[in-house]
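Case study.
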Amino acid sequence: MRGAKSAKWVAIAGVVSLAATACGGGGDNGSDNANRKIDPKGIVSYANGEPQNSLMPANTMEAYGSVVIDSLFTGLVGYDKSGNITYENAESVTPNDDNSVWTVKLKPGWTFHNGEKVTAKTYVDTWNWDANPANGQQNSAWYRDIEGYDQVHPAKGKGKAKAMSGLKVVDDNTFTIKLANPIPYFAYKLAYSSFYPLPSGALKDPKKFGENPVGNGPYKFKSWDHKKSIQVSAWDGYKGQSKPKNGGINFKAYTSPQAAYNDLRSDNVDTMPLVPDSELANYKQDFGKRAINTEFSAINTINPAYYTKQWKDVDRKVVQGLSMAIDRDTIAKTTFFGNREPATGWVAKGVKGYQPDACGEYCKFNPAKAKQFIKAGGGVPGNKISIQYNADQPHKGWVTAVCNSITKTTGVKCVGDPVTDFQADTEIRDQKKVKSIYRSGWVLDYPFNGNFLADLFGTGVDGNKGDFSDPKFDGLVKKADKAKTVDESAKLYQAAEKELRNTMPGIPTFYNKVNSAYSNNVKKIEFDQAGDPVLWNVEVFKK
Amino acid sequence: MGRYVARRLLQMIPVFIGTTLLIFLMVNVLPGDPVRALWGDKPPDPAQVAQIRHDRGLDLPLWEQYLHYMRGLFQGDFGRTIAGNRPVLDEISRAFPVSMRLAAMAWTFELVVGIVLGVVAGIRRGKVIDTAVTLFTLVVISVPIFVIGLACQLYFGNNLGWITPTVQDSTNLGQLMVPALVLGMVGLAYVARLTRTSIAENRSADYIRTATAKGLPRRRIITVHLLRNSLIPVVTYLGTDIGSLMAGAVVTEGIFNVTGVGNLLFEALARREGAVIVGIVTVLVLVYLLASLLVDLLYAVLDPRIRYA
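After joint prediction, the assembly is written out as follows.
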């Protein structure tokens, strides 16, 4: 019996030690991939999730659906890494002198996967259909710049017209867009998936189409096994520049990023959008050369709710002082393990018109000046602030770090104000019931600096949740929107951004980054500034 | 017996209506607007919000929504999801077969291994094997399930490569094996402990002494007399565990990426998909009620002294 007893103890100890060493495995083994052969028919797999809606471009806002849509469709224009327009299905998109009428010329000979021709009429019909509220397309507000939109899609009730008067077909490959409010950067908006063309069948039976989409993009729809995977295969007839270098994509549905991460480590999936926050400290070690850490046009700010008693009549020097009390460099290095970058302005990197240091010295850590500014501005009312965030995302760590930094340098009491989840958080922000300060994030809609400025901080615009108002800024925005060219407009917007340092609509904190990795099955994977993987460009190794 | 079953079935009706109403009201009290949330960080479009609300019947007063829902339910219509406008029945009928497979495997595992361990430990009370079983079950009960799950995933999946770290096909029984073992682990520990205590207690009962005195073979004493009389608390536990194995697998399902009921429920809660939540709970309530009725009927089989008039 004695012998048996000790044997059991050994067995139990064995199990414990196995579990303990389990973390020690993995590591970099990407070096032996250099000589492997490429399989042009190989399938790339991507850790995605189940799309919320059926696959209609104008009805897809969330990431799981849009990454699939982007593989199936190609729009008129796209953009490059520095935020310049590239022409895809369009040969040219040119405005008239005052930017009120835009002429779109299509590249001839493009078809959908089913052989139907992509013509000027295709685009006009699709857009009119998308804009109609009766068709329930979530992104229909994207058409609001076009003349006649308010007739088709009034703020309340049924539309009075079925077609926007601003859209006119000239010939098979040409159509014109008349804008209600001319803007010089309208072409940028056309890059958004809302403006993708739909074949005529889609407008007749959208329900069927959404489960079985037919696009004009580099990949052809193959199958959708709900909550499991969506498969698309490379399309031979593709005429655009992003001709697939692989045989297809398998969008695998994962329910949690942690599960996807573990599969990625074992080469069961080839890449994922963002590694889970719990792995931010380890992923570079786990993947070595295969780790991805690149720029992503998204920014985080903490915004004072200017409708509250606390901030209503506050001297903006106080806000500038708080901003200078945040040691962004240290927090980026420690709390984020170097996976965020201190923000120096209100516009994210990688968009047209980005300028470094728009916020100037007010976004640099300066304890002495921070104290001095807060004092000169009459101090923080109540000498206490709270930062509202949603607790279902990993915000707690950095909010606490920011708070500690503020309290340590200025003596102003600062606490986190967690709200159960994102939905509840948004509701409080929409109803303007934030107590003090709230966390805010913005990912680009289109890579133009105006998107980060006019749409967020203009007086009374929808995105301005904190009731911020700066007449001088509004004036500069108006001027920028009246500019003749995109470059000129971007420059004027830069001036508007610089004005914000005087009124501080929010305190810029960090620029996000794409933190991901790829498996041993593929040569390389890159991400664009919208945070999406460039999947057509992925080369898969022979098995 | 027949009248008893009929009465129990009739009792299910008020329980059923009560739970669905309660859940329905609770979902509506949760903060956050699911329609607004479709737009995420971006400003929503009021015309579309109104359209979607009208479409899903969310603009009706609450009592009318509930009536609509119940009316649909009796015709087999579970409503539609807010995001995506898909039939809830599709979602549920995709998730339940997965959870049923997972729960059945976990349940069989805890039933067979749990009872065997319990019987062995109970008969050899105080011996080494008893201590070992008690210690093992203590460890399993005290270690949170996600630790066991993640350790298995890391060790068998990432390091040894015996399994893929996550389940690639949620309907594949072979792939569900490890998640089922993890899921059944805690139940197994409870079953083993319950069986052990019960066996150890009944071992010295009069009827066992009588059976031994009659000279019955040991095996027959244990299986027919001892085990059968000791199973009542175990059956109670196993009966209610069916429901919790199906609905309570959120953690295990999350770790292994199994798209079962637990996951669907979690997702629906996060998205405030009222119809999905109430739909799942409805089915689960039925499962619980039927399981507990079965357990009660089993009592009579196990112990002839229990009779239902």
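Observations recorded in class. The radius of gyration of chain B is 24 Å. The first helix of chain B runs from residue 2 to 29. We will return to this complex in the next lecture.
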